[in-house]
Amino acid sequence: MHSPPTNKRIVISGIGVLCSLGTSPEQVFQSMLANTSGIRPVTHFPTDTLQCHIAGEVDWGTDTLEAFGDLSYDKCAQFAITAAQQALQHSGLSVLQQGTSITGIRAERFGLALGTCNGGILSLEAQWTVTELDTKLTGKYPFYQQSDDVASYLGVRGPVTTINTACAASGNAIGYAYDMIRWGYADAMLAGGSDPLSHTVYAGFNVLRALNPLPSSPFGTNLGLNLGEGAAFVVMETLESALQRGATIYGEVCGYGLSNDAHHETAPHPEGRGIQRAVDMALRQSGVPKDQIEYINAHGTGTKANDQAEIAGLRSVFGAEMSVPISSSKAYFGHNLGAAAAIELVTALYAIHRGYVPGTLRLDALREGCEGARIIGEKMEPRRPQYVLNNNSAFGGHNASLVLRTSPSAEDELESSLEKQHVHHRVAIVGIGAVSNWMTPGNGVLAEMTARRRSESEPFSLKELHPDHYERRMNTLCQSSIGATRLAYEDAGWSEQDLSSGQIGYIYGTARGSTSSIAKFLGSIFEKGAEFASSIYFPHTVINSISGKTAEKLGLTGFSSSLSTGGSDGLTAALYAAGTIRGGLQQRCLIGAGDDHSELSDAIDRAQALHELPYTRTEGSVCLALSELDNAQLSGQRIYAELLGFGTAFGRGQADSPIPSAIALAIEQALAEASLSPNQLDLILLNCPGRANDYILIKQWLSEIYPLNAPLLIDLNIQFGYGPSFSSMLQLAAAAELVSNCSPHTILEQWPELAGRQLRYVLTISATINGSYTAAIVGSVDGQ
């Protein structure tokens, strides 16, 4: 199997930022050095009926706005493009569509990871209704649309993913980008986050009584947070390439950690256990001893619950005395939600580059639970720490922690952690669970193919099957995700004690989250007013709430992420999880994906021309249990299949284009990683929205590779219906069943060409709505 070295050193060679303190790193730094606050009266929308009237707003000049002309981008994407362009210019690196250059990276080797909390929500707010929606505006809303628009604008054609873990999203995005380069899927990545200030989100925080009517003071006695807006991006590449072209290096990403509190959808674990686990993982992966951390840029929102929990979690790692200097940059520019981690990291790295670390404005006395901690006060301190920690936490219980070295050189060496050694574990699929309105839980995927009768089916009810996991008014996507995840871990033979050990990860892919809950929250404001925002549905406007609630109900506290691609969500979750198992970061991981069906999802379909496609729309969730293969065999587990290789690329090609199509690039990557030739494939499962161009491209690729005797190409969406996230994972589950010899005889009635054939290698391909492709190859395991 193709396996690039996992000990590549990844550095940040370009930075870009816009926030309430300015629209460049230098401008923001000078404002911070002058102890300037960007928190001012809100001008974007009326706040007269709310308890708070201040926030950090970006002062965006008309020249910047005019630069986008008539391009149909939400402000979230516009912010992101501006910051990403800055980072590229800062780095001196360019995206090459053709040719080679020491100062450029080929587009297909340049990827993008964007973190966002609310996606294009301003495009829905502009309509102030959730009925009879305008197609042009609604098409700009989806979370995945933001990263796809940025990638299209910049010409990026490598891995493109939206990380949706709310306020930890851009920290997770930087970690994800770090992995994409180390694992060989990209040579360079743009990573960061973007979130504009939203009227409805502001109203949601208002109803939770989390806002501070005065400029906030994290860790101080003035409780509450201020919201902000902005974007920040970094250019990431290998240390070798950065040194080769003489780039300025702002920091080396040494490692990162993710976790979930599994405690509450909006409140952190009071003892900071999730934060502790994320920091411990980051330190372990990086190989940096904890006593070498010289500065911590904390999440520090200013709320009572968050600040106390964060300090408690940090004490668990660094000791009760907590002598490591800490500051919260949110006092300068507010809580920038999904962009928070990236903005805080970029501004801290630039400040350190100039010889300072950020302070914590307006810090008077330390509040209860924070006493004794070494919190940096009002002024920036002259200091150049070598190793720093960047922390962020989120609704849904997600935590992200990054460890960075601020002045790396080629001679520096750390004692390698397990993750950085030349380990390459094999990855097995050991459990499958699927839930939808047409599946009988526990029957397997393919067994339902001819047995199902959609008209006779009833919606899945978690309340009936597992009432202990059910909550009043729990949305259908949460119910199906919890149900599918439980089926998968039970199928794998894992116990509830295994789940609560903190050693099992959970990565979830969803294109849209619970659109029914999002519509109910927005409707509460659009119909009644901002002061009547629903506190019940507000937590579900962040679409990581599905994975967060599943983690909470099942006690999943390990490596935890949630992502959106708009059609390959399941395979992307599988790629991410498999990489962490191969590298030794974790031995077991659950991967899920799901969709719901609502009037809002129908409106999004119409906006993105999906309403005329040939498939029935479906909803539900699929979950797979992954394990390190040797351990699974030693424990006597049934193994469905081995995950052999992945590939991913962005950019819908044309049948007559000289540039290789994204689908061809993704398949070639997967074959190379699996060390297989095209002729060794027995079957191809194609999952796409159903547009004619998708079929033209795949058939063109097949005709070029296989002049004669191409593998059978099957489209399971004809039988199962289509859900952007659900279908991606469902077809991976089907591929695993097909090579495991457990597929039912009924499939032969559908495809008699398979009769009497032993399927050893199956390729599954998922296409996204905007032209990104992810490919995965599964293989049978001898003796199973």
TrEMBL record:
Organism of derivation: Candidatus Cohnella colombiensis
CDD domains, alphabetized: KAS_I_II (cd00834)
GO terms, molecular function: 3-oxoacyl-[acyl-carrier-protein] synthase activity
Protein name: Beta-ketoacyl-[acyl-carrier-protein] synthase family protein
Record-stated family: Belongs to the thiolase-like superfamily. Beta-ketoacyl-ACP synthases family.
PROSITE patterns on file: KS3_1, KS3_2
Gene Ontology CC annotation, any one: cytosol
Span of domain Ketosynthase family 3 (KS3): 7-406
Top-rank taxon, per record: Bacteria
UniProt GO BP: fatty acid biosynthetic process
Keywords: Transferase
